[in-house]
Amino acid sequence: MDLKIAIVDDSSADREYIRTLAESWGSERKLGVSTAAFPSAESFLFAWDGDKSWDVLLLDIEMGSTDGVTLARSIRRESKTVQLVFTTGYSEYILDGYEVAALHYLLKPVSPEKLFPVLDRAVDAIAKNDRFLTLETAEATERIALGDLLWLEVRANYVTLHTQKGDITVKRTLSELEGMLDERFFRTGRSYIVNLNAVRRVTKSEVLLSSGESVPLSRGVYEPLNRAIINMK
To answer: Nearest-5° angle of CA 179, CA 180, CA 186?
Structure first.
C-alpha cells in the first residue's frame, strides 16, 4: 500500500520531527510512504486545491489565522475518507476532533509510541473504505462503498441505505444487511443502523449525523452507543 501523508504545523521543529517519524513508521512497516510538510493551513489548502489524493493529515490545532480544526472542517466538506489526526498541547480539543470525525488526537510531544499505532489504525481505516456492498435494486445492481454509507432505515418491507452519494432502497431485511456490515456500524433500534464514523453528536433520544440528519435512539442504547464510539476512536 502506498500512502500520502501531510503534516501541517506552524512549528518548523515539530513539523520536521513528525515528518521524520512518519517516514520511519513507513519504513518499519515496509509501506510506500510519501510525506509533505506545510507551515500553515493556508499553504496546505493551496496544495489541496490541486491534489486531493492525500490519505492522512497530521494537523496541529494551534496555528495562526486558520487553526487545525477550521482546516479540518474545510477538508471534511470535500472528503469523508481522508484520515485526520490532530496534534495538540491541550486535551480540551478532543470535542473538536469528534465533530470532524478525526481518527485520533495526539498530545504533544509526539513520540513513536504515540504516533505509530495511530498510523496503523489509519491504514486499517483506509482499507475499510475500499470495502463494498453489492446489492440488487428494482432498477440495477448497486455497488456501495461502506465508507460512503451513513445510515440504514427500515421502511415497510424495504431498507433504505443513505449514502454520501444518495439513497438506495432494497428489498432486504435490516438483519440481513447488518450481517454484511463491519464493526463501524451500530444498531440504534429495531429500524436503524448508523455508521459510527458519521456520528457527530449523541443525545438520550437521537443521533445527529455529519450529514445534518438525525436518527432516533431507542431506550437503553445511549450508553452502549457511546462506548462503541469511544472504542472506535
So the answer is: 65
* pLDDT one-digit tens code per residue, 180-223: 998 889 999 999 999 998 898 999 999 999 889 999 999 999 99
Q: Is the pTM of this model over 0.70?
A: no
Q: What is the SS3 string spanning 8-70?
A: ECCCHHHHHHHHHHHHHHHHHHCCEEEEEEECCHHHHHHHHHHCCCCCEEEEECCCCCCCHHH
Q: Give, in degrees to the nearest 5, the angle at Cα 49 between 81 and 162.
A: 30
